[in-house]
Amino acid sequence: MIKVQICLFAYNLEQSIASCIESVMENCGTYQYDLFVMINGCTDQTYDIVSCIADTHANVHPVHIAIGDKSNAWNTFIYQYYDGHSVAVFADGDLTFGQNAFQHIVDCHLAQPHYNAITGFPWDRGRNSKQMQHRMQQNHDLAGGLYLLSPLFIQTLISHTVKLPVGLIGDDSMLGFLSATNICSGTDLPKQRIGVCVKAVFIYAHLSPVRWQDYKLYFRRRVRYSLRYFQQLSIVTDLKQQGISAMPAVAIHGTSASLHQVRWRSSHLIFDLISKWMIDRQKMRLHPDSESASKSLS
């Protein structure tokens, strides 16, 4: 009998977590599953809401994590809650899901078990979403909203003690790289190692032009995208050159941001510059002596 473990990431989602969990439970089909809600760094009522749901659903497990960090939550699930043999599906707690989305992604794995990972599919009629859909089908990118990692691949990750760096933005991009390269094996074969399940649909809420909070959310999102760009550029380059041993425990330790890496002639410019300033400031906090030395020489 196939058993499924679902890892759901939640950070300050008191407004959406109940509907997300309901959507998960409605779309697992006939598979038996345990749902682990990784409630990381929440300062709202997310944990209380999930705990109330768990009181009446024995297969829902709220997991309280003090650090508000998705990559750390991923590590916690893999090394403390994954049972070593179930099919593991990962999803974001601010989404809802299409009909039988979780059944479809597990079915896809069972039909094509050679894939290290299988990505779900974003559903929307907007231009950006259609571009993302096309890119995923062409490149076999991994979407962080909904994806599956095969038991064999997870066992390989664990045997190599692979953990995502704390503070990493873009767990999906890093896991996509690790899946496509078979953990830095020297080959990069996303189409052979990452499957795309177009029936495993995840649905995200639109930002509204009439809500001020959504403007702030959009701005923060764009800054995070730029931070992810610099992180991936630095860390993945080191992994390609040195192998999996180059994976830093903390993202900032492996991240740099130089002016020539800034995307000057693009809509990313202002966000790249903000992100570069943030990265440089973190670096100075980590190495205050080097900053003092540079001032003494100037």
Write the layout of secondary structure elements.
Blueprint: E1 3-10, H1 17-26, E2 32-40, H2 46-56, E3 60-65, H3 70-81, E4 87-92, E5 95-97, H4 101-111, E6 117-122, H5 127-139, E7 146-149, H6 151-159, H7 171-180, H8 190-193, E8 194-204, H9 212-242, H10 269-286, H11 288-297
Parallel strand pairs: 1-2, 1-4, 2-3, 6-8
Antiparallel strand pairs: 4-7, 5-8, 6-7
Helix pairs in contact: 9-10, 10-11
Protein model, in words:
By secondary structure, the protein is α/β, with parallel strands linked by helices. The protein folds into 2 domains: 3-204, Spore Coat Polysaccharide Biosynthesis Protein SpsA, Chain A (Alpha-Beta Complex), CATH 3.90.550; 212-290, no CATH class. 47% of the residues lie in helices and 18% in strands. The chain contains 11 helices and 8 strands. The protein has helices at 17-26, 46-56, 70-81, 101-111, 127-139, 151-159, 171-180, 190-193, 212-242, 269-286, 288-297, and strands at residues 3-10, 32-40, 60-65, 87-92, 95-97, 117-122, 146-149, 194-204. It has an 8-stranded mixed beta sheet with strand order 3-2-1-4-7-6-8-5, with helices on both faces. Helix 1 (17-26) links the parallel strand 1 and strand 2. Helix 9 (212-242) packs across helix 10 (269-286) and helix 10 crosses helix 11 (288-297). It is globular and about 55 Å long. It starts with a strand and ends with a helix. Residues 291-298 have low confidence and may be disordered. Residues 6-135 form the Glycosyltransferase 2-like domain. Pfam families: Glycos_transf_2.
